[in-house]
Amino acid sequence: MALSMVYDEKVQEKPSIQMVSKSQYAINRSALNLSEAVAKSEEEGGGCRWLMQFSLLAVSSIDLNEVSLFGNCPSALICCLMDYLKEVEGKRVHDPLGRKMSKSERRILVPGPVIVGAGPSGLAVAACLKERGISSLILERENCIASLWNLKTYDRLHLHLPKEHCELPLMPFPPDFPRYPTKHQFLNYLEAYAKRFDIRPFFNKTVVSAEFDPRSRLWQVKTRGFKKEEEIVYQCQWLIVATGENAEEVVPEIQGMNEFAGPIIHTSSYKSGDSYRGKRVLVVGCGNSGMEVCLDLCNHNAFPSLAVRDSVHVLPQEMLGRSTFGLSMWLVKWFPVRLVDQFLLLVSRMMLGDTARLGLNRPKLGPLQLKSLSGKTPVLDVGTLAKIKTGNIKVCRGIKQLSCHTAEFVDGRVENFDAIILATGYKSNVTSWLKEGNMFSEKDGLPRKPFPNGWKGECGLYAVGFTKRGLLGASLDARRIAEELSVHSSWPFQHVRHDNHDL
User: Which residues form a coiled coil (predicted)?
Assistant: First the structure.
């Protein structure tokens, strides 16, 4: 029986379908007639069956549950609505299903949101959407989830904050996890999270550009696979940027870097101090990573030095039997931030001493004020200061220049080193591929609107994980985005499942 005839019978049988307007019915009927015409022109009628089903679903307000007669329609076989429309315009009459299209021209319509990035932020928003019955598609450039944690972190890494402040929405950490989970425990948690919510990212998909097309009102998300010719354009109405603040390494330009004879690596390539035993290592940068790498080097019998250019707040990881972070969050509910900062600095001085005497000058603004205004995170000491006090870790000023085996510092000191590790952090790379100039700043790749308003842009563009407030901020963004998109809960595609192997 012709699909259009089946549809006519459905309209007569289903009261809910009878509510479709006459104009909508005409559109649906025309689409089905066109699909049947395409089917007759194809030698392989089976290949067009999915296109005909999609024609019905794409233009109809009928819920998928009401057209179960036609079976599930995997997104892998949804043959791209935009190419279908081009066919209607007569642009692809001789190749209606795109079988002759080159890889670089392949286009796929995604019924729900496209999420760029399968880190904790991407997983969080996908789970929140799934909870509301909204399917999404995640594009990830690496071959695993949480690639920063999986591929670019050192072995001894633990969460610096208690687990209750780092869990993703809808799923707490296992109760048997320690207060500060290890890197591997956190990764196991993320794997379990993805499994629980059936989150299956499309791996090895590097987004090279994303641009909103005002004519179709769709985002055009262009990806590249392992082979450069394997290019696919995903088209979607909603684009969620979840690449976060740590997408690319920050590598400073230091005079003489090319002349230095020893290895120079970023902390993203550092695993442990085992290969640096007995070596003089200069660690550049005094954030949490730089301080912890110095401690790890020291524990592996290396001779680390810490190059400190800027002022920094160093706080104990715990105060008065509570985590410093948790205590701070509780205090700011009752007292002004400036007063809480004074309390934190007073307790820190009592517990750690005067860090300025160790070469670690404190900023003029308090730790919470500085975090709020600049996003600069205070260092939570996990034992590094004790090694500095005993002389096992040297503190140096900023680097002026490097030569074959030496580093000259801005105070005139010259020291010999065997290796240099850059603990200079990461940055956003959004502006390198997102062709949009309103939501994200060209300067730092972060949302222009300050927290908590940076999660929503225009034309269906959203951001998660750019709050400079860690996993707590990402979770808050994820919930807001899911709530916003849930108003589209009547989408006919919301229950469509996709299979990674089909694309």
Answer: none
